[in-house]
Structure to design on (669 residues):
């Protein structure tokens, strides 16, 4: 089940499923150490002898407040005669999650309601060896293991702490889990549990006839007892409501910091733009890691997650944030990449949020021969994004130490990692992490990376290196035109596989071919590029009621077995947005520019009601698939909207000047 309405502060992140159950809790790194592990943290209600866990029996509307990382969740149960409004946030400064709860009686009679909050922690991502106990000093439940402490508590508007509590264990014969204990409306008050420990706290709320009542719930995270106990005191002093409001105020200022011109874009599009910026920030660790996605459900497909740093994904997010005016998270990301760069000057497939090397499914041995298990575009795109960052900030002092530690080492690798005969990059894995060869998208990324490195070399008066990088980029342009163009198909091929006489071309149409244009490797108006883009749109557009663009013809990833055979693959947000980006770049009139609007509006229609974008959607039902949110999806949306606004301003004034590139130079036409 995809995740929705994430809230976080760069140290603590919580995500919910579509049934409004906490599923993922990351601390102290975003994306590392999931202390919930995808398991349910239940929220239940007892009223008039009836009990219900929030879930399918409830009407659930998951949204955020406008321009904020405070939620506005509405729950309704006709069976219980209740409506509940939940507003919650992770405090912007403190590692505290706070939920404000407002209950409304729908039965027009006086009632006593009991709210139950269950916790199924797996500290450090392991269910073994946890302890949960009632702490009389703070009048709260504390879960701990080694150096991870979580304090949980709640209160009604008439109290200062939980009205009831109990600690239990799961899956142990003869012992009852506290969430089962809660279903009769009472908790037995068991003060401690260990091993497979879980717990429940309760708040009792009195409702007048047709009246409203209030409660609050909070979770504090720390590395030791004194830390969470101190945070509990802060909550008591400042009040949960004050913490929520100060967090809301902060994010509103953050989201509105730039005055933007969106041209004639519909408000529904600009709303998703604003939400995308905020969602992106929740997925970024304060120490620099930009996480691809934090959605534990994907584990069941292969025993691994997306909670890693890919150089490619991070580069696109950093570029989007920089272009939107948010440089601070980008700085730490580039330092992260500098620290992670291998001795050979390249990035591996991905990294853990703490900077350590993550799992890698690319082998070091292929067909009996040693290979580098990398995706070369990840290394190259970091250089491309770093130049965008510099163009926006002009902070030479920030770049200076990175010039040798990141720029030169990575660019020298790109320079050396070339076929001595064709001058194309040597084989690596493609951006979809499926094929080993020479890929058009990777070549485009390497050209963009070398051009960025050359600009840095000029900046630091390193003329000989600048010439080397520029020459290599130029040679690759000529090589891709010579070796990866398919005359019979009258378009570029997505990949080539080295043979004694050149390259055997992969004829499968792939949306990543648009990267040859959007990364400015080749001229936009080159007939071969135009024919390639036309083929992408023609062959990858879905003819279902959902629409959108697939990644490539015959894509099986996350595809239902009973899916229609004429569907090329599930539609992806990034693919659909890349086509929009290409349309914007080639537009010479407002009318042409409007050709991208259906693709932006497709994204709006297929976003969750909260504004969250998944990786892909089902081609028939439109339901979100794979991980949610995907930072790559949100960053692509941000970049396309910014490019639209910029292009609209030019064209509406009657100017047909070339599109400004992301790096600030005029794009080649």
């Amino acid at each position: 089940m995809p995740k929705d309405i994430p809230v976080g502060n760069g140290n603590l992140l919580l995500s919910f499923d579509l049934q409004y159950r906490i599923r993922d809790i990351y601390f102290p790194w975003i994306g590392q150490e999931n202390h919930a592990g995808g398991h349910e943290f239940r929220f239940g209600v007892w009223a008039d002898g009836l009990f219900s866990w929030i879930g399918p029996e409830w009407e659930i509307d998951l949204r955020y407040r406008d321009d904020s990382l405070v939620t506005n969740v509405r729950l309704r149960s006709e069976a219980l005669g209740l409506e509940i409004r939940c507003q919650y946030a992770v405090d912007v400064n403190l590692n505290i999650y706070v939920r404000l709860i407002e209950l409304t009686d729908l039965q027009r009679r006086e009632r006593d309601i009991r709210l139950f909050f269950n916790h199924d922690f797996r500290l450090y991502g392991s269910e073994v060896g946890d302890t949960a106990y009632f702490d009389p000093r703070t009048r709260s439940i504390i879960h701990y293991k080694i150096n991870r402490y979580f304090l949980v508590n709640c209160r009604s508007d008439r109290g200062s702490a939980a009205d009831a509590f109990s600690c239990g264990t799961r899956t142990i014969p003869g012992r009852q889990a506290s969430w089962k204990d809660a279903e009769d409306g009472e908790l037995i008050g068991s003060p401690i549990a260990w091993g497979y420990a879980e717990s429940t706290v309760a708040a009792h709320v009195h409702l007048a006839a047709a009246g409203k009542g209030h409660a609050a719930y909070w979770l504090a995270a720390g590395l030791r007892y004194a830390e969470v106990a101190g945070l509990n005191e802060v909550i008591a002093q400042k009040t949960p409501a004050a913490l929520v409001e100060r967090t809301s105020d902060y994010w509103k200022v953050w989201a509105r910091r730039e005055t933007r011109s969106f041209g004639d874009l519909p408000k529904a599009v600009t709303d998703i733009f604003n939400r995308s910026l905020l969602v992106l920030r929740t997925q970024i660790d304060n120490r620099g890691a930009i996480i691809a996605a934090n959605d534990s459900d994907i584990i069941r497909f292969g025993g691994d997650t997306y909670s890693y740093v890919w150089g490619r994904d991070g580069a696109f997010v950093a570029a989007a944030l920089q272009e939107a005016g948010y440089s601070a998270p980008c700085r730490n990301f580039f330092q992260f990449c500098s620290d992670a760069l291998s001795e050979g000057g390249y990035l591996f497939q991905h990294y853990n949020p703490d900077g350590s090397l993550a799992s890698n499914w690319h082998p070091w041995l292929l067909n009996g021969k040693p290979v580098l298990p990398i995706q070369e575009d990840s290394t190259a795109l970091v250089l491309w994004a770093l130049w965008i960052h510099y163009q926006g900030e002009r902070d030479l002092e920030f770049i200076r130490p990175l010039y040798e530690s990141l720029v030169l080492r990575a660019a020298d690798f790109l320079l050396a990692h070339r076929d001595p005969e064709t001058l194309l990059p040597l084989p690596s894995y493609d951006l979809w992490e499926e094929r080993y060869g020479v890929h058009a998208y990777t070549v485009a990324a390497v050209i963009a990376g070398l051009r960025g490195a050359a600009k840095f070399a000029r900046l630091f008066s390193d003329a000989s290196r600048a010439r080397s990088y520029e020459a290599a980029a130029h040679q690759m342009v000529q090589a891709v035109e010579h070796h990866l163009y398919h005359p019979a198909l009258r378009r570029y091929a997505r990949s080539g596989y080295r043979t004694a006489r050149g390259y055997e071309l992969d004829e499968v149409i792939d949306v990543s071919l648009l990267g040859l244009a959007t990364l400015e490797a080749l001229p936009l108006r080159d007939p071969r590029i135009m024919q390639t883009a036309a083929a992408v749109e023609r062959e990858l557009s879905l003819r279902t009621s959902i629409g959108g663009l697939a990644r490539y013809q015959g894509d099986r990833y996350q595809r239902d077995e009973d899916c229609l055979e004429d569907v090329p693959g599930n539609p992806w947000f990034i693919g659909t947005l890349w086509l929009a980006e290409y349309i914007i770049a080639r537009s010479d009139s407002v009318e042409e520019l409007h050709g991208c609007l259906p693709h932006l509006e497709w994204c709006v229609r297929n976003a969750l009601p909260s504004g969250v974008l998944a990786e892909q959607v089902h081609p028939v039902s439109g339901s979100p698939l794979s991980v949610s949110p995907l930072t790559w999806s949100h960053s692509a949306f941000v970049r396309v909207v910014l490019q639209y606004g910029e292009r609209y301003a030019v064209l509406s004034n009657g100017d047909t000047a070339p599109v400004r590139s992301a790096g600030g130079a005029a794009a080649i036409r």
